[in-house]
Amino acid sequence: MQIEESKISEIADDMEKNDIDIAIIGPEMPLVLGITDELEKKGIEVFGPNKKAAQIEGSKFFARNLMAKYNIKGNIPYKKIEKKEDIEGALRNWKGPFVIKPIGLTSGKGVKVWGDHFTTYNEAIKYGYEIFDGRIGGSEGFIIENKVEGEEFTLQAAVDGKNLSFFPLVQDHKRLLEGDRGVNTGGMGSYSFSDGKLPFVKENHYKEAVEIMKETINALEKEGIKYKGILYGSFMETPTGPFLIEYNCRFGDPEGINTLNSIKTDFIDIVKYTIQGKLNELNIQFNNVSTVCKYIVPKGYGVNPVSNKPLQIDEEIYKISNLKIYMASVNEINGVIHTTTSRAIALLGTGNTIDEAEKVCQKGIEHIKGEIYYRKDIGTTELINKRISHMEKLNNK
Ligand code: GLY
Fold first, then answer.
1. 19 alpha carbon to ligand 1 midpoint, in Å?
2. For ligand 1, which residues put their CB under 6 angstroms from it?
3. Following DSSP, what letter does each residue of 153-216 receive, concatenated?
C-alpha cells in the first residue's frame, strides 16, 4: 500500500470527525509513517505500533541492530551499506553466500538471495547500485547478510507493550511459481495445521522463536519503546535453531488470513486487551482447524501482469462449505470484478486436516475464470512432505 506522509494527518482528521473510537491499522506503510502517533494525539485508541516501534519493519537495519545490541539469539551476521562507493568491496569480500535487503519498505519484493536471484558478484553489485539509483526501499541503502538455509516459517503474536500472545505457526510461499521458483511476490498462499505447529519445525526451536520475539519486545521496552499491535516474525528453521529473517509490524499477508480464521476468541477482545496492556488476562481460544489459503493473481503477476481483465465468478462458489473469499486488489466495473496488477482474490479453505482444507480451497478456485494464475502446489501433501524431507536432509548433514 503506497501512501504519502502528508495523507496521515488528513486520515487522522477524518477519523476524528467521524467519531472513531478504536482504529485497527492493517498495512505497514501508515504505521511506519506514524499514523498511530497522530491518532493517539486525538484520543483515538490504536491497535498497531507507533512510529518508533514500527521501525522494526520500517528499517531492516534497526531490527538487526536491536537484536545485536541486546545479544538476542537468532540474529544473522549483517553489514549496512550506506554509501555507493562501498557496494563493490563489501559484496566481493563477503564470505559465503549472501542476501541483499534494501533497508526500507519494498512490499516483500526487494530481497534478493544468492543462488536464487543472482549467481555472480557482478549481478549482486548491479542490484546494489539499482537500490541506490532507484531508491528501492527508500534512500538509506541496504544490508548484506549471510544466506541461511532451511525452511521458512511465520510466528505472529499480539503484543500489548509487555505481554505476547502467540498465534498458530503458518508457512507462506513467497516465490511466484510452483516448486518455489520464480520471482519473490507479496505471498502466493499459506497454510497452518490444526495443532498450531508445523511438522518441520522442532518443538525446542519453536520455543526458541517464541523467546526471540519476547526478548525483542523486552529490548524495545529498554529502549523506551512500547510496542502495541501485531508482531510478525519470519524465521528460518535450521538444524542449529531458528534464525530471524525479518520482523513485520502487522499481520502477514496472507498469513493473517489463516490466523484470523484460526481464532475462536472475538478478535475485538484481543484488540481491546492489547490496547489496555492486559493480554495476560485474556486466554485466547483457537478453533483447532487446518487452513489453506491461495491467492489468485493476474497472469504475468510479479513480472509483467495483465491488468483490468474481467473475472467470471460462478455463484456456486458461495455455496461451498468451509470456504471464505477475500477480495484483494480488484475493481468492480459495471457489476463485474476486474483484476489490477496485484494479487486479486484470496481463497481460504478450512478443514480437520490440511488435505481437507486444500481440497476446499481448490474447489473454490474452479469457480473463478479469467486471465489468472495461482499455485496449485500450496498446502498439498506432496509439497509439505518435500519440506519435511528437506529439513531431515539438513539435520542429517
Ligand atoms: N507474507 C509476507 C508478508 O506479509 O510480508
1. 31
2. 108, 172, 187, 248, 252-253, 255
3. EEEEEEEESS-EEE---BEE--EEETTTEEEE-S-SEEEE-TTS--TTS-HHHHHHHHHHHHHH
Measured CA to CA in angstroms, residue 105 lies from 148, 152, 168 at distances of: 21, 20, 26
Ligand 1: residue whose CA is nearest its atom 4: 252
Report pLDDT for 397.
87
pLDDT of residue 363: 98
Q: How far does the chain reach from its first CA to its final CA, in angstroms? A: 42
Q: Looking at the CA of residue 154, tell me the nearest atom of ligand 1.
A: 1
**Residue 255 near residue 187, CB atoms below 8 Å:** yes
Q: Report how far residue 38's alpha carbon sits from residue 383's, in angstroms, rounded to the nearest whole number.
A: 45
Burial of residue 378 (CB within 10 Å: 0-12, 13-18, 19+) is buried
Task: Write phi, then psi, for 2 (nearest 5 degrees).
Answer: -95, 135
**Whether the predicted model's global pTM rises above the 0.90 cut:** yes
Q: What share of the chain is helix, strand, coil (3-state, %, to 5)?
A: 35, 25, 40
C-alpha cell at 59: 528499517
Nearby residues of 139 by Cβ (< 8 Å), 6 or more positions away? 104, 132
168-186 as b/e: b if 16+ CB within 10 A: bbbbbbbbbebebebebbb
Digit-coded pLDDT (tens) for 328-362: 999 999 999 999 999 999 999 999 999 999 999 99
User: Splitting the chain (397 residues) into consecutive groups of 10 residues, what average pLDDT does each group show?
Assistant: 78 96 96 97 97 97 98 98 96 97 88 93 97 88 97 98 98 95 92 98 98 98 98 98 98 98 98 98 97 98 96 97 98 97 98 98 98 98 97 95
Determine the Cα–Cα distance for residues 387 and 397; give it in Å rounded to an integer: 16
d(CA 185, CA 171): 14
Task: Report the C-alpha gap between 38 and 33 in whole angstroms.
Answer: 10
Contact 66, 216 (CB under 8 A): yes
Residue to mutate (ligand 1; options 167, 172, 185, 246; most atoms within 8 A of CB): 172
Give me the count of residues in the chain: 397
Rg of the chain's alpha carbons, rounded to an integer? 21
